[in-house]
Amino acid sequence: MPAVKTLLVGFLAALGAGLLNQLLLGQRVRHVPATLGPLVEEALKTGLALVTGTSLPGVHSTFGLVEGLWELGCRPVKPGGYFTRWGPALAALGGHSLFGWLAFLAYNRTSRPSLAWAIGFLAHLAWNRGIISLHCRPWRRYKT
Q1: Contact (CB, 8 A) for 17 and 44
Q2: pLDDT digits (tens, 9 = 90+) for 44-69
Q3: pTM (two decimals)
Q4: What's phi and psi for 27, nearest 5 deg?
Q5: Helix count and strand count (H, E) for the chain
Q6: Residue 21 contacts residue 32 (beta carbons within 8 Å)
Q7: Distance CA 77, CA 35 (A)
Q8: What's the confidence (pLDDT) of residue 88?
């Protein structure tokens, strides 16, 4: 039964984050994907897991699975573009699972929810910056 509870909490966190992200994007709030998204997502995942007593890594991984399924469903299929769908989906699952383990380790060692959230948030920020830098390479714009 704990596994079902963890799945439900992970789905709830994903639903809440998706709705909040859409609301912020609809209001044209800048920095949603890179900064506010991780802030909201980590608060929901870590907060709900701690409040409900469910597994931090489990909730984060479930969230990543939901996000990965969303990536699979919303990306157009391009001929020969294997990673156009599976790359982002696997990155979502792997990234959120990593954030969950880092939050778990921080909480397990310190018993401080704020530190667990901060570690997950900082890891998520670094991850997003890395992903953005891979896809937005300014040096590709200039011919030498």
Answers
A1: yes
A2: 999 999 999 999 999 999 999 999 99
A3: 0.85
A4: -85, 5
A5: 5, 0
A6: yes
A7: 28
A8: 83
